[in-house]
Amino acid sequence: MPQAHLTLDPAFRVAPVNRRLFGSFVEHMGRCVYTGIYEPGHPAADDNGFRTDVLELTREMGVSVVRYPGGNFVSGYRWEDGVGPDRPTRLDLAWRQIETNAFGLNEFMTWTRAAGVEPMMAVNLGTRGLQEACDLLEYANHPSGTQWSDLRVKHGATDPYGIRLWCLGNEMDGPWQIGHKTAHEYGRLANETAKAMRLVDPGIELVLCGSSNSGMPTFGAWEATVLEHAYDAVDYLSLHNYYEENGDLPGFLCSAVDMDRYISAIVATADHIGAKLRRKKKINLSFDEWNVWNQSRFTGRERSPFQEAPELIEDTFTAADAVVVGDFLITLLRHADRVSIACQAQLANIIAPIRTEPGGPAWRQTIFHPFALTARHARGTVLRVEPSGPLLETERYGEAPALSAVATIDGSQVALFAVNRSPDQDLDLTARLLAAVRPLSASVIAAGDDPHRVEALPQPLTVQADGDRLTARLPAASWTMILAECESLRDQQ
Ligand code: AHR
Q1: Which segments constitute the Alpha-L-arabinofuranosidase C-terminal domain (predicted)?
Q2: Which atom of ligand 1 is least distant from the CA of 351?
Q3: Residue 272: Cβ within 10 Å count
C-alpha cells in the first residue's frame, strides 16, 4: 500500500484562518437570483420574497462573503434600475436575459443580513465608469444629506450599509466582456475609479481585475500592467478559474495543482511589481470565482432568445467534483497568507452547491459537503504540513503529489484536511503531531468506486491513534477531514 506522511507542527504557521475564504457569488444570471435565492410566492418565501430554504442552506454551508451582482452581468448593469419603486425591464446583453430588476441592491443587502454574510459589490467598468461607481458607493455608504444617500434613506434604508469590499469591474481582460479593455485602458480607469471611490469612503477595500483565467493569452502581462497603474490604489488582485473533468479523471483529480501554481504565479507577479515600484505594501489575492464547471458542455448564449431567468449551466455535480472542490479549499487555505478572499461561483443553480426547483424544493449538491465541513471546522491558524508521499504522472499537469493536505489548529483542536488524488489506489496516511493526540471524528467522501455518482454524503472514516501519531487509510479519489484533540498544542500557540 502506498504510504504518505506529514507533520503537524505549530511552528509551521501560515496565517490565521480568514473567514473570507469561504465566500460565494450571486450573479443576475440564469436562476441564481430569480427562483434561486429570490422567489416571491414560493411556499418557503418570506415577506421579502427570499427563499428561506435557500437561506438555511446558505447558513449551513458557512458562506461568509457573497459577491454581487456579477460576473459578466455587471458590465452592462445600471445599478439605479434596481432601487426604488420604478424598476425598468431591460435587456441583459451578457447572458441574453430579460432583467426585470425586481431584485436590486436593497433587496441584496436585506438578503445578506438574513443570510449572515458580508456583501462584496462589483461596479460596472464596462459600459460605465468612475462617476457611476462613486454614485453607487455614495448611495450605499454615505450616511445622509446628499442626493444619493438621501435617495437610499427615501428607499427605506435609513442607515448606511458600510459595504467594505468592492470589485473594480469583472474580467475586463476577456473579449466577451461588455466594454472589454486593454490592460492599459483598464489599469488607468481602475486606478482613477479607485482613487475617487476612496474619496467617497476611505474605509473601503478594493479588488482590481486580474486575468479571467490562467489560460488567457495576456495572462501575467495583464496583471503586471494593471498593477503598474493601480498598485497604490487597490488592496487585492482578482483570480478566476474553473476546472472540468472532460474525460480525463486522473488529470481532473489533480486540478488543485493548477490552482496552486496559478496562485504562486500571481503572488510572484504582484511582488515583482511591488519591488519594481519600491513599495512595502503587498497586494493580496481575491480568488473571487472558482469552481468545477463543465464548460465544454456550455454552447454559449449567442443564438439564444432573450428570456427571463433561463435555465443556464445548472451542472449536476459528482462525487469526483466534491473531492476536487475539497482540494481547492485545501489549496486556498495553504495560501492563506496571500489569498484573503475566495468566492465559489455561484451560490444557487448556476454551477452551484445549492439547487432549487421553481415552486419546489432546494437541495444540496455533492460539492456542498466539503465546503460546509471545511467552513465549519477550519478554525484558528492554518498550518503548512508539507506532506511526503507518492507522485502521480498526469497528462494535464505533469507530476503531481498524490496527497494534498492542510491543517488548522485552534487551542487544542486540530482539523486535518486531506485529498488522495490517485483515481485507483488507497493511501496510508501517518500524521505526526509532536505530542499525544486523540482522534475525535473523521469524515470521508470517496469517489474511487463510482466517481460519477451524484450523491456524496460524507461517511465516517476509521482513524487510529498511537501516541503522537494518527493513521488512516485514505480511499482512492477521496477527500477526508480528521478532527482531533492535542492538549499540548494549546501551550505552543
Ligand atoms: O460565473 C459565471 C461567469 O463566469 C461569470 O459571469 C464570469 O465572470 C465568468 O466568466
Answers
A1: 288-478
A2: 1
A3: 14
CA of 72 to the centre of ligand 1 (A): 6
Indicate if 171 belongs to the active site. yes
pTM, two decimals, is: 0.97
Q: What is the pLDDT of residues 354-391, one digit of tens each?
A: 999 999 999 999 999 999 999 999 999 999 998 999 99
Task: Give me ligand 1 centre to Cα 474, in Å.
Answer: 34
Q: Are 386 and 11 in contact (CB under 8 A)?
A: no
Pocket of ligand 1 (CB under 6 A): 27, 29, 70-72, 170-171, 212, 289, 345-346
As a whole number of angstroms, the distance between CA 271 and CA 338 comes to 11
Asked if residues 237 and 285 have their Cβ atoms less than 8 Å apart, the reply is yes
Looking at ligand 1, which residue's alpha carbon is closest to its atom 3? 71
Report which protein residue has its CA nearest ligand 1's atom 4: 71
- For residue 301, pLDDT over 90 is answered with no
Active-site position among 39, 244, 245, 289? 289
Nearest to 371 by CA among 92, 24, 90, 118: 24
Nearest CA to ligand 1 atom 9: 71
| Average pLDDT value over all residues in the chain | 97
289 labelled catalytic: yes
What's at 436, amino acid-wise? A
Task: Give 146's Cβ-side CA count (13 Å radius).
Answer: 14
Q: Tell me, in angstroms, the distance from the centre of ligand 1 to residue 302's CA.
A: 15
Q: What pLDDT, on the 0 to 100 scale, is given for residue 493?
A: 66
13-26, pLDDT tens digit by residue?
999 999 999 999 99
Q: Give per-residue pLDDT as tens, 433-491.
A: 988 999 999 999 999 899 999 999 999 999 999 999 999 999 999 999 999 999 887 76
Best of 24, 26, 27 to mutate for ligand 1, by most ligand atoms within 8 A of CB?
Answer: 27
CB-based contact 374:381 (threshold 8 Å): no
| 392 contacts 254 by C-beta, under 8 angstroms | yes
Residue 483 CB partners (closer than 8 Å, separation 6+): 377, 413, 414, 415, 416, 439, 440, 441, 442
d(CA 117, CA 20): 10
CB 421 within 8 A of CB 400: yes
- Grid coordinates representing 474 are 485514505
Q: Which one of 107, 132, 138, 171 is the catalytic residue?
A: 171
Q: Which helix (H) or strand (E) holds 343?
A: strand 339-345
